Amino acid sequence: MCLSHLLTFLVDDFFSPLMYQDISVMRFVGVNASDINYSAGRYDPSVKTPFDVGFEGVGEVVALGLSASARYTVGQTVAYMSPGSFAEYTVVPASIATPVPSATPEYLTLLVSGTTAYICLKELGGLKEGKKVLVTAAAGGTGQFAVQLAKKAGCHVIGTCSSDEKSAFLKSVGCDHPINYNTEHVGTVLKREYPGGVDVVYESVGGAMFDLAVDALATKGRLIVIGFISGYQTPTGLSPVNAGTLPAKLLRKSASIQGFFLNHYLSEYRASMDHLVKMCTSGDLVCQVDLGDLSTEGRFTGLESVFRAVDYMYMGKNTGKIVVELPHPVNSKL
Q1: CA distance 233 to 115
Q2: Is the distance from CB of 2 to CB of 294 less than 8 angstroms?
Q3: What letters, b where the CB count within 10 A reaches 16 and e where it falls short, cover 66-91?
Q4: Burial tier of 101 (Cβ tally within 10 Å: 0-12, 13-18, 19+)
Q5: How many whole angstroms separate alpha carbon 87 and alpha carbon 89?
Q6: Which of 16, 43, 202, 236 is a plausible cystine mate for 146, CB 3.0–4.6 Å?
Q7: Rg of the chain in Å (alpha carbons)
């Protein structure tokens, strides 16, 4: 695995050393739970070390090739989702770059975390006014958006989290009922407060939390799996679930479970990203960023801090999206 110093080009459909399209310097890169899965070879077993990691970044264009110059200018800020983003400079096809108003980390939160919540709930959630929606890891990078989008759809939103501080954050973004699982048992609270069950679950934790969410489904309820972070650091990448009784539970309630993987919905990505950028710019969407200021060693600055940022995430310390700041390279010749 490599944390690279690469050139950032915006190209159309291919890259040629003789005809590059755009070079950008990265200001911020995002940390995702899926970074562990990719590094472990679970997404593409054919990838061999050393290889570049990271999925998203935001920065300024510092050079242009011929075809990209029609759409972008030097100094323009762009955000992008592309493998190998843990780099000070990186190659980016122009077709996947999204212009954003400024090189601020808030726009980076939308690239993977925001679009996952938006497309997933739009395509699979069936959200309607009055529906009860449970979001697990609700104060995390993508959970924060699921909470807000469900609330904007007129739903009653329940969110699990790990601290009173996170509960307060969730209330501030519209969560009707935060549940701190370190002080309350999630299953007990759900049975007591929602005896009829919940209609939609946006689930990213896996293991025991997945089991609790299945038990909490209402008749015709739907559970959408967007991840299972509790198991990513295990040899198999999975946490055990009570699969043996699952068919019977789903049958009794006419309930369903469906997975969501962003790469399978890329046809929806551009329009979704543009919509979220407008919401963020207008202040209609809170894009909470965690730069690690409260971590033991302080703010996540420079590529060398990516490892700390990943550990911080797996310890459940973050509120919002974990972002690493990249100082401008002092010795850059670009």
Answers
A1: 24
A2: no
A3: ebbbebbeeebbbbbbbbbbbbbbbb
A4: exposed
A5: 5
A6: 202
A7: 20
Q: What is the DSSP letter of 268?
A: G
Contacts of 271 (CB under 8 A, 6+ apart): none
Instruction: Provide the token pair at 235.
Output: 């040899």
- In order, the DSSP letters of 92-133 are EEGGGEEE-SSS-HHHHTIIIIIHHHHHHIIIII---TT-EE
Distance CA 182, CA 247 (A): 30
Interhelix angle 246-253/207-215, rounded to 10 degrees, is 30
Q: How many CA atoms lie within 13 A of 44 on its CB side?
A: 12
What is the pLDDT at residue 272?
98
Q: Taking CA 148 as the corner, what is the angle to CA 146 and CA 153, rounded to the nearest 5 degrees?
A: 95
State residue 20's pLDDT score: 43
Cα–Cα distance list, 291 to 24, 90, 165, 253 (Å):
22, 21, 16, 42
* Widest distance between CA atoms in the chain: 65
CA 22 from centre of chain: 26
Taking the chain (334 residues) in runs of 10, the rounded mean pLDDT of each run is: 42 40 76 88 83 92 78 90 89 87 96 98 98 98 98 98 98 98 98 98 97 98 96 85 94 98 96 98 98 96 96 95 86 52
CA angle 192, 198, 203 (to 5 degrees): 110
Do 287 and 110 form a contact (C-beta atoms < 8 A)?
yes
Alpha carbon 192 to its chain centroid, in Å, reads 31
Residue 217 makes CB contacts below 8 A (sequence gap 6+) with 197, 198, 201, 223, 249, 253, 255
- Quote the pLDDT of residue 62: 84
Domains for the chain: give ranges and CATH numbers: 22-103+288-325 (3.90.180.10), 121-263 (3.40.50.720)
